[in-house]
Amino acid sequence: MVLDPITSDRFTGAVRAFHGITDGFVVLHSPSGCYAGMFYMKALSDQSDVRMTFSCMHARHLVHGADYLAQEAVTRVYKKFKPSFIALIDSAGPAMLGDFLEPIVWSAEKEGIMCPISYFGGAGFSSSMQSGYEDSLESLVKFMSKEQTEERSINLLGLHTDEPRWRQDLVEIRRMLATAGLKINSVLAASTFEEIVLAPKASLNVVLGGEGLKLARKMEEEFSTPYIVVQYPYGLNGSEKFLRDICSELNVKIEDEVIEKERRMIGRLIEKTVFQLQGIYGLACSVVGDSCKAPPLAAFLNSELGLAVDVLAITSKNDYCDRTLETLTCADNVMIEPDRSGLLDRLEHGDTQLLFGSTFDKGIAHKIDVPLIRCSFPEMDHISLTSVPFAGFNGTATWIEEIINALSGMYKENPLLSVDNNGGV
Fold first, then answer.
1. pTM listed for this prediction
2. Fewer CB within 10 Å, N- or C-terminus of the chain?
């Protein structure tokens, strides 16, 4: 039996977390195969921001080790790029050999490296992608400093910088918070290293769907920073709840008129699609994504657009996922980190007509002959250059646009119906 796991390993999770430090650099101590996979996943989604290199470890080094190559790579990266932070991550090969990389951190200043370095054990056999991500974020606490708390300031935890429209989502979330007089202090991890160091200034850590929960708990322990877990703000109802939950936690009043203004604005924008929305009511769809975004997306599609969610497949389960799913009733079937072939088999025996997922789900969409809307990690065959988000009030219109255009663009010829050159049937 051939298995095709739907999630990745600790190494991938660590790279996803550390690469989000916008003025940092990631050094992978690994053979070229491990490096190439991560490099191309980054490059194909954004060629302007691939702050990553590897230690040039080759097959001959898999006998005697090559920790000296990691030292040389870190030194060269600092001399050439002068990053504010360097993350040194090893993979399964050097970990099995026992390459000892901690001395590189200890001797950094002696080697002329004047920025902080964090060594992280990323061997894939150690744990899952989710654990790698959570442990990487938590490791940043040792660089943070206690500051005077700034009122009405929050940290946003769990935003991934390698997912579709993440920049647009962040702009929209920042705008929404501003309507309530709130500001973002730091985004972990989608901020500069200095902003991460000053993360304890925030009045509250806002954990998106449970992503970064381990970091939130550590910051509460170290700096007494409270935290709240909120669902990713999809749709009008999801966006309103997102705002009200945060405001309630901070004891900040948000006027009803602010929410109503947002709803009226989107209502006027999408009213031109009433005919199409009636046409897709009850359409069966399936959602494939991580436990941060997939459940709230499924809830939005069902409760606000009237789609029937056939399958909700969680590709990467975090520690809060079970609590999220306790209140979720919109999906006929929930699959937790299924084998990809098992997911395909389930979808082939269902009635899905529209699939939400990632580039890796393109083959499944092709086999069941339905449109694919890319909304989760990884996205390597689709670009999003315009400023429209998926999140927030404004994201509601984006979803409707994507769904209607995806369905309208599908052409399926009916063999019982043909049109001649004169327009006759």
1. 0.93
2. N
Instruction: Record the tokens describing residue 21, joined without a space.
Output: 């430090």
pLDDT for residue 93: 82
Radius of gyration of the chain, Cα coordinates, nearest whole angstrom: 23
Separation CA 68–CA 72 (nearest Å): 6
- For residue 65, count CB atoms less than 10 angstroms from its CB and return exposed for 0-12, middle for 13-18, buried for 19 or more: middle
Inter-residue contact 225 to 219 (CB < 8 Å): yes
Rounded to 10°, the helix 32-45/10-18 angle is 50
Q: Over range 305-310, report the average pLDDT.
A: 97
CB of 232 closer than 8 Å to CB of 296: yes
Alpha-carbon distance of 419 to 425, in angstroms, equals: 5
Q: Closest Cα partner for 13 from 95, 127, 166, 92?
A: 127
φ and ψ of 221, to 5 deg = -70, -40
Task: State the amino acid at position 356 in one-letter form.
Answer: F
Separation between Cα atoms, residue 134 and residue 215, nearest integer Å: 7
CB 172 within 8 A of CB 57: no
pLDDT tens-digit map of 389-423? 999 999 999 999 999 999 998 866 544 444 444 44
Q: How many CB atoms lie within 10 A of CB 382?
A: 15
**Homologous superfamily in CATH for domain 272-408:** Nitrogenase molybdenum iron protein domain (3.40.50.1980)
Burial class (CB in 10 A: 0-12, 13-18, 19+), 283: middle
Q: CATH class for domain 10-140?
A: alpha beta
Tokens 């999770």 found at? 13
> Which range (32-36, 55-59, 114-118, 292-296) has the least confidence?
32-36
Backbone φ and ψ for 322, nearest 5 degrees, come out as: -60, -40
Please answer whether residues 93 and 57 qualify as being in contact, where contact means their C-beta atoms are separated by less than 8 angstroms: yes
Enumerate the domain spans of the chain.
10-140, 153-263, 272-408
**pLDDT for 38 beyond 90:** no
- Which are the contacts of 59, defined by CB distance < 8 A and separation ≥ 6? 31
Please give the single-letter amino acid code of residue 252.
V
Handedness of CA 88, 91, 94, 95 (dihedral sign): positive
Same CATH fold, 272-408 and 153-263?
yes
Fold classification of 153-263 is Rossmann fold (3.40.50)
Contact between 88 and 117 (Cβ < 8 Å): yes
